[in-house]
Design brief:
This is Aminotransferase class I/classII large domain-containing protein. Belongs to the class-I pyridoxal-phosphate-dependent aminotransferase family. LL-diaminopimelate aminotransferase subfamily. Pfam families: Aminotran_1_2. Its cofactor is pyridoxal 5'-phosphate. InterPro entries: Aminotransferase_I/II_large (IPR004839), DapL/ALD1 (IPR019942), NHTrfase_class1_PyrdxlP-BS (IPR004838), PyrdxlP-dep_Trfase (IPR015424), PyrdxlP-dep_Trfase_major (IPR015421), PyrdxlP-dep_Trfase_small (IPR015422). With 493 residues, the protein is of the alpha/beta class. It has three domains: 82 residues, no CATH class; 125 residues, Aspartate Aminotransferase, domain 1; 254 residues, Type I PLP-dependent aspartate aminotransferase-like (Major domain) (Aspartate Aminotransferase, domain 2, 3-Layer(aba) Sandwich). The protein is built from 14 helices and 19 strands. Strands 6-14-13-12-11-7-10 form a seven-stranded mixed β-sheet, sandwiched between helices. Helix 5 runs parallel beside helix 11. The N terminus is likely disordered. The structure holds pyridoxal-5'-phosphate. The site of pyridoxal-5'-phosphate has 13 residues, from helix 6.
């Protein structure tokens, strides 16, 4: 039986090898004869766990009508191994042990795998994605015109330029300083233009090295934790947490602002406001507390303001609006969510001159060295687009893109609120954080995908504090957001 089951599966999945075990329950007084087995009612549950399959996908195949005169099949357990290269050759290089500590896949590729599996199960499903926070609306003309002009100029002798300054073009650095940090004491030389905030988060981790302890909001954008693991700052993963990371719980009970007195000994505090995934923004008083805490403990805040322009009330847009922040904080930000630059790739990080390591050495000098070593400057075409974003026309265009996503956010919030859910975020961020008390986030994710063909993001993917929540992103075409809302209203009516 082992042989026939394996060859059946191998013919369906030729690239996979299978270890199939089948338990057959029969009447106690007899064993199945070999001749009976091939024609038995073969109801098999198969678990595939490989990079190409969603973890624990299962399907059932039934070949023959059940015949009570035949022995009935019990549990059929099948474990596949991923396709292996048919080679005995391996290099002498051992795997980076920190990589082995990482849990499963990075959240968003895992969601993409689950979506693909859903589509292969239901090829005609009209799946709407309100999952990954990727923008959907076209980049305004003012930006694309500037970029195409710059691209065309590259074909001329006068307009050609090769490598630029690793820190970014002076004009763009200056425009970022005057647009977002006017009167905050941030100079253009404090600004490092980059290919996006996510890349800068990793560069900052390289800057800090493996001997620091980080604290993160729980839940938080996964890049802080994963880059910390990769750098070797953490221990193993136990009880849904990595050892040597401080998880600062943010939930409705504390209005999504952590109790700082619970942090023990963090060197670097990653703090995202408005927060992805909870959608909540910290108030001036809260950020003042955070800066004072960092000062008292001589720690560094890495402040992620990738959604700052979504703030609709008087919460600060930058950590540098808080007195004393320049001595304790770095800020990273991005054009991704303001101007649809997720694919164009352009962001920046501010490292003030006032920020010093314990020995008095300026952090900015080391960061400059990291940038010059790991990066060769943002694309000159993208930087032309960034400069256009900060022109008066570009600022207006960004604002109207943001307003469009705000309206989407309102539609999603209204939908869940009307259905009786407790809904958080949304006001200052393009994310709605919906509570499903007592339920597993992945189960809710699966239910919404299965029954409404809508992709969301399970809260637990952002840390243990996200369990019981899902994040619904407002990035989407209007008709999709409306249709998703209709389907969700049907599902949870
Ligand atoms: C909080 C946060 N920071 C950074 C990023 C990444 O931004 P970028 O596209 O500039 O790499 C994201 C993207 O979703 C984010 O949510």
């Amino acid at each position: 039986m082992r042989r026939s089951g394996r060859s059946l599966l191998s013919s369906v999945f030729p690239k996979y090898s299978f270890d199939l075990s089948l338990s057959v329950s029969v009447a106690a007084d007899r064993s199945p004869s070999l001749s009976e087995l091939p024609s038995m009612d073969a109801s098999m549950s198969v678990s595939l766990n490989s990079p190409h399959f969603v973890a624990h996908t299962s399907f059932t195949t039934s070949k023959l009508k059940h015949d009570t005169s035949r022995p009935s099949l019990g549990i059929c357990k099948c474990v596949s191994s991923p396709p292996t290269e048919q080679t005995a050759y391996a290099t002498k290089v051992s795997r980076n042990a920190n990589m082995a500590k990482l849990q499963a896949g990075y959240l968003f590729p895992e969601i993409a795998r689950r979506r693909a599996a859903h589509l292969s199960k239901y090829p005609d499903a009209q799946v709407i994605s309100l999952g990954i926070g990727d923008t959907t609306e076209p980049v305004p003309d003012v930006m694309t015109n500037a970029m195409s002009e710059r691209a065309r100029a590259l074909s001329t002798v006068e307009g050609y330029s090769g490598y630029g300054a690793e820190q970014g073009e002076k004009k763009l650095r200056s425009a970022i300083a005057s647009t977002y940090y006017k009167d905050l004491g941030i100079d253009e030389s404090d600004i490092f233009v980059s290919d996006g905030a996510k890349c800068d988060i990793s560069r900052l981790q390289v800057l800090f090295g493996s001997n620091v302890k980080i604290a993160v909001q729980d839940p938080s954008y996964p890049a802080y934790v994963d880059s910390s693991v990769i750098m070797g700052q953490t221990g193993l993963y136990e009880n849904q947490r990595y050892r040597n990371i401080e998880y600062m719980r943010c939930d409705p009970q504390n209005s999504f602002f952590p109790d700082l007195s619970l942090i023990s000994n963090a060197d670097v505090i990653f703090f995202c406001s408005p927060n992805n995934p909870t959608g909540s923004a910290a108030t001036r008083e809260q950020l003042t507390q955070l800066v004072q805490y960092a000062k008292k403990t001589r720690s560094i805040i890495v402040y992620d303001s990738a959604y700052a322009m979504y703030i609709s009330d008087d919460c600060p847009r930058s950590i540098f609006e808080i007195d004393g922040a320049k001595e304790v904080a770095i800020e990273t930000s991005s054009f991704s969510k303001y101007a649809g630059f997720t694919g164009i790739r352009l962001g920046w990080t501010v490292v003030p001159k006032e920020l010093l390591f314990s020995d008095g050495f300026p952090v900015a000098k080391d960061f400059n060295r990291i940038v010059c070593t790991c990066f060769n400057g943002a694309s000159n075409i993208a930087q032309a687009g960034g400069l256009a974003c900060l022109s008066p026309e570009g600022l207006k265009a960004m604002q109207s893109t943001i307003n469009f996503y705000r309206e989407n956010t309102q539609i999603i919030m209204d939908t869940f609120t009307k259905l009786g859910f407790n809904v958080y975020g949304g006001k200052n961020a393009p994310y709605v954080w919906v509570h499903f008390p007592g339920r597993s986030s992945w189960n809710v994710f699966a239910e919404i995908l299965e029954k409404a063909n809508v992709v969301t993001t399970p809260g637990s993917g952002f840390g243990p504090g996200g369990e019981g929540f899902i994040r619904v992103s407002a990035f989407g075409h209007r008709e999709n957001v409306l249709e998703a809302s209709r389907r969700l209203s049907q599902l949870y009516k």
